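Quality-control log, excerpt.
Job 1 of 2 completed; input and output follow.
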Amino acid sequence: MSAAPPPKKRTWSLNSRATRGLIFQAIALLLIAAGVWFLAHNTQENMRVRGIQSGFDFLGAAAGFDIGETLIPYSPSESYGKAIWVGVLNTLKVAVIGIVLTTLLGVLLGVGRFSRNALVRGLCYGYVEVFRNVPILLQLLMWYLVFIELLPPSNEAWNLGHLFYLSKGGFSFPFPSAGVGQVLAGVGLGLVAAWAWRQGVQKRFERTGQNADRVWAPIALIAVFALVGWLVAGMPREWNIPEQLAFMVDGGVSATPEFMAILIGLVIYTSAFVAEVVRGGIQSVSRGQDEAAAALGLNPKQKMNLVILPQAMRVIIPPLTNQYLNLTKNSSLAVAVGYPDVVSIANTTINQSGRAVECIAIIMLVYLTTSLSTSAFMNWYNQRVAIQER
């Protein structure tokens, strides 16, 4: 048996295409760095000549303004940096919840376009054509007006079982008083276990053709891990339940009209595009795959879950990533309905501190970071899908 040939040594020669490629990349990076330095230096020098303060030292100064909706404790006496961080968390809250809900609704609408029921197909088609052709800003304003004009006042809130209240003051619902962190940690571990279960089922199906439950078993795993988290927290049973008072609804957890408007508007608008992405991905699978699955005796649900959707994912994921990025960036329109996201808080900071360049740079950095993180995760998932298809 002949020995493997020794690896080729890299030869650094201008006649080598790889060497020339590295040199051109290094030159391009140097030119970009020089351009960025020139712009930054020129901007700073012009601001100095005109007596405009610059720098990020203002982030440690007291903000002096209140924020109507926060995920972490905040008071006006705290710093601008803390206020901007509150805005970043509010932006992430809209983006993460919106991506999850958009995915669920968009997939249902996309699959519904292939339903054998003409009414379902028509409703899905009408939904897509209506909501994707109305500008997102108009939809946000429409939903905001629904909450502040059409809903009853807080002292006459609609309620369901005296547990859920909906009014101009927002949507209030019960929430556990303790143990939330442990339960959420359990849910996170349950999601990992559910993902591992589905991966194992898929590999077994590809190897032996034997299938197993992919829905109820993962849900059971999530429930079991959440139960474990509740037990670790000491089995708390106290709930913070909202209560109708004379002038308002007090207690529980409340989603403000501004948050509901931006969330519903983004989900409804983006899910229409996601539905078209899913429809295009399904249509990219050849009809022979559907016929082969039917010849094996698979019912329509099994054909969609086991044969068509797995093959359509390679077409769906890249444009789906674009829609996730669009949803995250469109959340900057929250300023139109008064939701305190990072753009809104940064605008207030600019008006008070005068540090426009720094605040705009922070906004750009926030959206650049979230977009690149989303792209990195989706690219990783896309590679996993491609490997599984091989």
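Job 2 of 2 completed; input and output follow.
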Amino acid sequence: MNHNDDAPAHTSSKSEETRLFVFLIVFLFPILSVALVATYGFIVWISQMTIFGPPGPAG
């Protein structure tokens, strides 16, 4: 029995790497950035409604 444990189970091809790169750049990063900004805005909105109040001078 000749088991070669040093060889990777799956070698990715150039086209698979290109597809993954395009997916990351075109879809995943923009979706994550919009979600991050929306989450931050929601946190600020909720904190202004419940804890800190609206911005600006008091009174």
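Post-run check on job 2. The chain has a mean pLDDT of 87.
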